[in-house]
Amino acid sequence: MRKSRGIFECGHYNEPTAIYITSSSTLESMRTIALLVLAFCLAALMPAMGQDASHWLAQAGRDYNNGSYSLALKDLDEYLALNSSDSNAWVSRARLQVILKSYNDAVESYDVALKIDGTDAKAWNDRGVVLSEALNDYDEALASINRSLEINPLAAATWYNQGMVLDNMGRHNDALAALNQSIDLDSKMAQAWNLKGQVLMKMDNNKEALKSFKKAVSIDPSNKEYQDNKSKAQKAAGQPIEKKLDFPSE
To answer: Which residue from 122, 137, 181, 227 puts its CA 20 to 30 A from 56's CA?
Structure first.
């Protein structure tokens, strides 16, 4: 089975969908997140007044939208040299560093942001995802995600991430409890059902795992990973694998 992916929260930028680090070639997906677009587009609307902070923030937006991530990071550093207390900018810097595969630097940027605003639950969550998915530092990742949940215990994606980290640590009962919390908050999160099924299979509870995979498939029937996991659970549970019938077109 493929490694499950963490979910980046969308933060202050009102991105309509969470970004799944999943197995989407886990780290590759992490690098492709477009969580800065809205913030930078809004920043680009600000008038550029010489070399002041507004100019650098707008320039960062233009370079980001052009795919020039290294230049965008330099622009953002110029902005932060003039406005170092902007926690949102430090979070943006961290996300750029993830795209550029500078994962340790990204964690340092999250640390600065959280020193400025320690109540940012989404930043704590995203920091935990980087620590888990990119750096395999599960203890620190769990601490970061737990802090996020202390601030916002109603975030289904964060409970999912906690379950993912606990699963990676071999704490399967605790992972199952976290995933059940996630599902209670958002029963349509196919990723949570899928990971729950994976955890249950590791616990040799194949019949219950099959129920979880079936639920994941019912939510996202086009997802091949979920379909494959369902077939594996059916085989492990001693049930016949369902076959799709191909009807000839008229």
So the answer is: 122
Amino acid at 38: L
Residue type, 87: S
- What does the pLDDT look like over 44-67, one tens digit per residue? 334 433 468 888 888 888 898 888
Angle, CA 130 vertex, CA 129 and CA 133 arms, to 5°: 75
Round to whole Å and give the CA distance between 225 and 231: 10
Residue 80 belongs to what H/E stretch?
helix 69-82
| Distance from the Cα of residue 131 to its chain's centroid | 11
3-state secondary structure 169-195: CCCHHHHHHHHHHHHHHCCCCHHHHHH
> Residue 193's Cα: distance from chain center in Å?
16
- Sign for the CA dihedral angle at 74, 76, 82, 86 comes to negative
> Token pair of 79, please?
């902005």
What is the model's pTM? 0.81
